[in-house]
Batch of 3 targets.
Target 1
Amino acid sequence: MTFQKGDFILINYTGKVKETNEVFDTTYEEVSKSEHLHKEGDVYEPKLVVIGEGWVLKALDDALLEMDIEKASTVEIPADKAFGHRDPEKIKRVPLRQLLAREINPIMGARIEYQGKMATVRAVGAGRVLLDFNPPLAGRTLIYEVITQKKIDSNEEKILSLIHRRVPVVEEEKFKIAIQEDNLTIDMPEDTFYIEGIQIAKRGIAMDIQKYLPTLVQTQFVETFKTEPKPVTTMPPTLTTAPATPVTETETTVTEAEPTSPVEETEPNAQ
């Protein structure tokens, strides 16, 4: 089975540097831990890719078109098709005092920001620091070991996968969606209410829906806040005591509709 551009697929992969066999990226949590790449709070699971949209390196994107479901594949990407060759002019020495004045403590191998650009600290000594502004993987041949886990076909699954891509810390099944003609309603779970950047994430979801499912012209987010029931005080019964009124749980619903005007979003190509 081969795929086409625009297909939604889930892939697991591990990326290595050919020259050193060093793992630089993976979707497997156990691999991330064994290779000392694990980051607390990151979600390790199959990655959503819309083929042809530049969500992965172009050479890998093109290779996905020829892969089969649940069959392991190895993709070798030379430096000129990955992160380019190393440019010696992008390696500069800067005074150590300039970094210390910005409260930057340069440590060998650390990634720091200097004059608005990211650089890798290559050496520290004699009052100067050697900074490399090349991408960390520039000049390296990359090996990707990939398994295509699943192709996503239904609109409902596509919507949930796009939501999960923007809000990966909350399980897909906690979001409830409803499609009525050309309108989409997304019922947001309480877990999302106070996530940092959730408004930006919702805006991104709406733009994704408009781009990949253009028949849905409006996306509406619903947030329902439940009021906790008040405790009932038990009073001794008397002849004049009226029956207690049952306490019911109330809900406050907030809806938020995205505009129907066309919205464009540019997905950054992998660097």
Target 2
Amino acid sequence: MKKLLLSIALLIAIGFNITAQNDSGKSDFKDKLYTGGNLGLTFGTYTNVIVSPMVGARLNERMYAGLGIEYQYTKDKRYEPALTYNQFGARVFTQYNFIPQLFAHLEFAAMSMEKYNLQLNKERNFVPFLYVGGGYRHMISKKSFVSFRILFDVLQNPNSPYKSWEPIYSIGFGVGI
């Protein structure tokens, strides 16, 4: 767990220290790139750690697109023995800004998810998601932001942990490269 926490801290430090300089004053592709992601930490009887780095690009003044990976570790001590899960996957997304702060979000994700069956044996399933929703982006500086999203899984795969029209809330950050 200490290695995981150190890796998370390193990821955040690298993300906030990456900057691009262009002495000629011209805008090139790397000036349109940004990195960031989501980080979730819950500790206690129910422990959940999510690390989800991403990279994206501003395609024009209103459109953004990108891709990312995700790893999630869960340990539920409410059971004896405790139940643990390791889940991982990838995603591609696009965002359209109505105004600089408000955006629509469309994302396809695919996860390899573990779950326990009735005999308490682990099963691994491939689960696709199609998230649709929107959010709010707040600029922290000229090249960094925090975003708040509300998404819905509209595919509703039988192995999806989300119920129909159950909102999924997330907070993320981004830093220009």
Target 3
Amino acid sequence: MHTPRRARLGDIAPWAVTALAVIGGVAVAAVAAVVGVAGDGPVRAADAAAVAVPRPPETASTAPPTDAPANATPYDIAALPQIDVWSVTPGIPVDDAPFAPMTGELARPLTAAPIFADPTGQPLGYLPRDAAYGGTVVPVVERQPHWVKVLLAGRQGLPPDGNPAQTVGWLRAADVELTPVTAYVEVHLASHTIDIVSASGVERVASDFAWGKPSTPTPVGRTFVMLTRVVPEFAYTQGHPLVYLGVQSATMAGFDGGTVAVTAFHYYRERSGANSFGCIYLDGPATDRLAQLPAGTPVIISS
């Protein structure tokens, strides 16, 4: 668990695959990516065809999806707060389906884009196209003709009184560009394995690692790579990058004197068992391999 330092934190061909992991007897659809052609660039979500995401019977819904109407209202972005790793936004939703399938797409604002808790409501904040601390390339978890629901950095509340779990929000399709997911990460805490899944297959990155102790557990569910950065001041990383995720501690409002408690993959000398503050401690090669993944890469952590 680490605090990004403000002072310092300054193509694989598209593919299609649906992964179904059975963990503790519960079927979990990890992610299904869209089919593309090597060399395709970003497309406006409003112009792209709808993506049909296969779902296993255990998670299938009999209710038809709700299609919210388009919203072309111009909003004063300057009057809205930026939603990022530092933000605490009481009205923003937390992820209510942390192990549900994703659409296999990443969204990035064309320019600063308003974020909505509900497509029929008013914006709670905005997502910039670029930010010093990342979090602007985000996985799409639901797709409608005029809207996309995405994972976000930032928290709804601070523990122990508020809910710091993975947050979500809605963006207007006309405000974003979409690119296909090229890989995702599966972390299994019980079996102590980390895999990168891509069109090439399943790559075992680690067969042991350290995770959060009971008082500071590693958050489980779906999240994403928010930011990857080498922080020389963190000598214990021995020069390896930290791969910061879009979810923060369930029990700590801040860490090491900072006001955030971000979960991360990083190198540490003691890297086996439940002994971290929530981060996942790895050896150098595993850390360096995960650091090669692009921003927005989905990460699914299962207990």
